[in-house]
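ENTRY TYPE: paired fold submission
RECORD: A
CONTENT: sequence, then structure tokens
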Amino acid sequence: MYRKNVQQLLQNLIWKLATVSQYEEVLAKINATSTDCLTVLKTKPQSIQRDIITVCNDPYMLAQQLTRIELERLSHIGPEEFVQAFVQKDPLDNDKSCYGDQKKTRNLEAYVEWFNRLSYLVATEICVPLKKKHRARVIEYFVDVARECFNIGNFNSLMAIISGMNMSPVSRLKKTWAKVKTAKFDILEHQMDPSSNFYNYRTALRGAAQRSLTAHSNREK
């Protein structure tokens, strides 16, 4: 019986290691492709560049796709990466955190980079249009995406979108914000309020976890 259990554990471990290896190869390809695409994009006239609303005009659909990306990237982060991220090395070794070791926390690093990339995407898409009414339309679009992310329980994308909208190049657009109905954004920002150690966020997270436990299907979860 023990031999059978050990064999099963080994098979699961081999499968997990193979999956992580494939995932890391995909990440490398994505990073290389995104760099090439950015280089090509810079050479194109702005008139033929497509904005996010042209690519996907349905906020719910974009929120669904963001959630799929979040789940895929999160599934490859092992608990050991979180331990290695915050455990300090020997004080004689400049007291550096293991978080800087890409080999030990590569997938966690990739998840952080994804958060930053989404935030900068939001800020860039808002700042690109030349007219205030177009910028206001993009802001309202991302507010709707963030609300759908909240309804799904995708709080990481929600936080990334809010972070992008709070970046100084966006927040300083006073005339643009004057054209935006900010009531929905204010509610979402309230949910992510960092005061009291993110009390509102932790309350929403507990509610989402409870709804997941009582869900009747994988889709609802």
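RECORD: B
CONTENT: sequence, then structure tokens
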Amino acid sequence: MTKLSAKNILIGISGGIAAYKSAELVRLFIKSGANVRVCMTPGAREFITPLTLQALSGNPVHTALLDPEAEAGMGHIELARWADLIVIAPATADLMARLRIGMADDLLSTLVLATAAPVHIAPAMNQQMWAHPATQENVNILKQRHHIHGPAAGEQACGDVGYGRMLEPQQIVDAVSATLELTHTPRPKTLAGHRLLITAGPTREPLDPVRYLTNRSSGKMGYAIAEAAASMGAEVVLVSGPTQLDTPEGVRRINIETAAEMLEAVTSEVPGTSIFIAAAAVADYRLKEVATKKMKKQGSALHLELEQNPDILAKTSLGNPDLFTVGFAAETDDVIHYASGKLKRKQLDMIVANQVGNGKGFDKDSNQVDILTAAGGHFTLPEASKTQLAFEILDIINTVYQQGQVRLT
């Protein structure tokens, strides 16, 4: 049984090329045990037929605002009452603009106004449309009312590359499920009275006024841990590199860009902290001398002189022996071997290791991790949503912390 079992899920489809992915989304929700109905805008029917979605969902597809076959012709009210949650995928720029101002000029937009159920929105559009200030303003307003999932970056049907791709169907299912886990699963306040300092996201190291070195970290794991820790009663401080994620409720967030800025923020927040969790993906190197003007092409190759960034995790761990310190190790190979070496070398209490690359780890809503402790413990957590993993990781951290295990030196 999953968190979605027996849930009544209404999938709304608007008129974007990503509508072809909605068929797989319907299948995955049904596979998760949900009851699924589909609502399509007129534009959506230009990309995928109602018959396909009717066959997959096992229910008639809804397209008309006033349905003569529905009770009193008010099919939209019946659907709005039926749904436990609404998932709109894809959500075009036009639909999001109409939802932002509360229009009800078709069945889907009317349902959003007529329901008390949570609404989940998966945007999909051209990268320039997504970046447009009007769209970003609409998104910021909609985030205050609904759940926004994505978009992802990558190659688009029009040939452009950038943010605007709809998340893959499994990512949407995972994101919706994770929200249900966090909303409906009561958690004991096992971290009450403790202050947790958490780092998340990437860092950016400038090369010149317009370029920087960074990595593919989305910050999702660190943010999930921060949100879970707050729900478990902890006081939480989140030091975050640049992300597109919202600040979790009950969490104090400090925004940084560079590794040096992150070290400064962590150092200032350590006093009074019980547990330090370093989930950020910090750039190992920075440019030795940042150019004050945009660098120009110089022949066929560009040579940059880099220097090491400060090791935030090691400095914090070695400089604060009474602080319970948890590191993260994202590796492409020999995950346990490299994580074990990092655990001992930096004198950590615990390390969370996971494999990245080949579609694993970065910018996904699920993960699989191994946890190693300084006293020789080894916990393997199977793949699950990052929200679920966050609670499991914190439960293990709390258990080991309470036991007061001693570091290996």
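NOTES ON RECORD B: The two ends are 44 Å apart (CA to CA). Residues 386-403 form the longest helix (18 residues).
STATUS: closed
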